[in-house]
Design a protein that fits this description.
Largest sheet: 9 strands, mixed
Structural class: alpha/beta
Order of helices and strands: HHEEEHHHHHEHEHEHHEEHEHEHEHHHE
Helix content: 25-40%
CATH architecture of the largest domain: Alpha-Beta Barrel
Number of domains: 2
Number of helices: 17
Distance between the termini: 17 Å
Strand content: 15-25%
Number of strands: 12
Shape: globular
CATH class of the largest domain: Alpha Beta
CATH topology of the largest domain: TIM Barrel
CATH superfamily of the largest domain: Enolase-like C-terminal domain
Length: 478
């Protein structure tokens, strides 16, 4: 991160030392002095085919649509800058429906993005991106509800889907905010720049607390990279029906040797216990054959497919019995049962979380869902760029306060969205891992990025090198 200029330092120092009377309305101070005003919003879509299908949650995905957003903003001093945000429209994950086709849910998200663009461009107040998102998210959700009626959608657009669709706009605003001050966006989360304490965005437990305490202004040097093994990915040579022969690894063993992996995400079915156990044991066996001296760590992801917690407990018992080292290598379990926690109050995770953190993912859309997850036994939370930068840092603050295990997960994010995801992982204290699977499934969307961010896109030591994320805004330089 570039250091503050003398002018910025003096300005920020003056704000922080104002007498109490002069700071009685910090949002007004921030709005007039350092907030950004939206001048224009532009968005476009990019389509990419997967190198090979990625199966999760019972569905094999073979393509991705990126939503790229550019927002021009102005400062009170008359400076004009552009912020950029990009995110996959992960409709299979965020808008699952047995009644609607892939194209139908994707079309709904595309149309919603156009409405979000108009809503965002119509916001005329000067404010911090977190404040802007706080005020606009209810409008985004209303637009989703209206669109559901107008398009006569069989399945209503979920809140998670709306957040994913809005995330590129939110990212562009945070990027612009940082660029307006020529600093990382993580240096803009101070009370003086934000204008409020955390109680405005979370609850009264956070009265007087600052978002700046939940992040670091400088990225850590590196973070562990989780390699994903999808439901149809080849673990051994015998799993391959036919080779792609495209010069890239095609089995887990080949990937381990190519990238010197030490972290593996295991995608399971959640409805076939014997298969899930055998798959986990097989992956652990191959990992130890290829890296016998490696301190392996696994993330086990059921994608909310388990019928109940008993399934999870039996899975853990059997894995411990058949692969003791594999059992101890499980770093955490991810969202075992259905995402609607209110409708499935019986699926408590207390017993499953005794030895391993159980983290909430699909269910996590706000503080209320985080608190409900804690009540039902979840001990950790997934932070995702695809839910929005504002959401990620606020949930990081909440997770820190409540002593929860935190991790950063992917949505097969390529290009700028992967840099965004890496920036979150590198700026949250105590968080040391990230999932990054676009290099496996959609490398075509990463072309060119290895030159500007080699530590993220061209790393082959099992790590993602994030020390380079020192540019202004979100740190991405295309």
């Amino acid at each position: 991160m570039k250091p503050f200029s003398r002018r910025q330092f003096i300005t920020l120092g003056a704000l922080s030392t104002l007498p109490a009377a002069g700071r009685s309305s910090p949002s007004i101070i921030m709005n007039k002095a350092h907030g950004i005003r939206i001048e224009s919003v532009r968005s476009e879509f990019q389509e990419f085919r997967y190198r090979s299908p990625y199966k999760f949650g019972g569905v094999a995905v073979d393509r991705v649509t990126l939503l790229n957003v550019s927002i021009e903003v102005s400062t009170a001093a008359g400076k004009t800058v552009k912020g950029f945000g990009s995110m996959p429209l992960g409709n299979v994950w965020s808008y699952p429906s047995k009644e609607m086709t892939y194209d139908a849910t994707l079309s709904a998200m595309k149309e919603l993005s156009k409405r979000i663009a108009r809503i965002t461009e119509g916001f005329r107040e000067r404010a911090h991106p977190i404040e802007i998102n706080h005020q606009l998210e209810p409008e985004y959700l209303k637009a989703a509800a209206d669109l559901t009626k107008e398009m006569a959608l069989v399945a209503p657009i979920p809140k998670l889907c709306t957040q994913v669709t809005a995330s590129a706009f939110d990212a562009a605003l945070h990027d612009a905010m940082g660029k307006s001050l020529d600093v990382s966006c993580y240096a803009t989360y101070t009370p003086e720049l934000l204008g409020h304490d955390l109680s405005r965005y979370l609850n009264q437990d956070f009265k007087g607390e600052s978002l700046a305490d939940a992040v670091t202004t400088n990225p850590r040097d590196w973070i562990w990279m989780f390699h994903s093994v999808g439901g149809v990915d080849a673990v051994t040579e015998s799993d391959l029906a036919a080779r792609l022969n495209d010069g890239m690894p095609e089995t887990l063993g080949e990937w381990i040797k190519h990238d010197k992996l030490q972290r593996i995400k295991i995608k399971l079915q959640g409805e076939n216990l014997e298969w899930d156990i055998a798959r986990t044991v097989a992956i652990d066996r191959v990992a130890r054959e290829c890296g016998p001296d490696t301190d392996w760590k696994y993330c086990v992801d059921f994608n909310e497919r388990c019928p109940n917690v008993d399934y999870v407990i039996e899975f853990l018992r059997k894995v411990k019995e058949q692969a003791p080292l594999g059992y101890t290598s499980i770093l955490y379990l991810e969202q075992p049962t259905q995402r609607d926690l209110k409708q499935n109050r019986g699926n408590v995770m207390h017993a499953a979380a005794k030895d391993h953190p159980v983290v909430i993912d699909e269910s996590l859309t706000d503080l209320e869902s985080l608190l409900l997850a804690r009540e039902t036994g979840y001990t950790g939370a997934c932070l995702k760029a695809c839910k929005g930068q504002s959401h990620a840092v606020l949930m990081a603050a909440a997770g820190k306060k409540y002593g929860m295990f935190l991790c950063v997960q992917d949505l097969t994010c390529p290009g700028a969205s992967l840099v965004h995801s890496a920036s979150i992982a590198s700026h949250i204290p105590g968080l040391s891992t990230i999932e990054a699977n676009s290099r496996q499934y959609v490398p075509a969307a990463n072309v060119g990025w290895e030159k500007s961010h080699p530590g993220i896109f061209a790393s082959h030591d099992g790590k993602m090198h994030t020390k380079e994320l020192t540019g202004p805004g979100l740190g991405a330089v295309s």
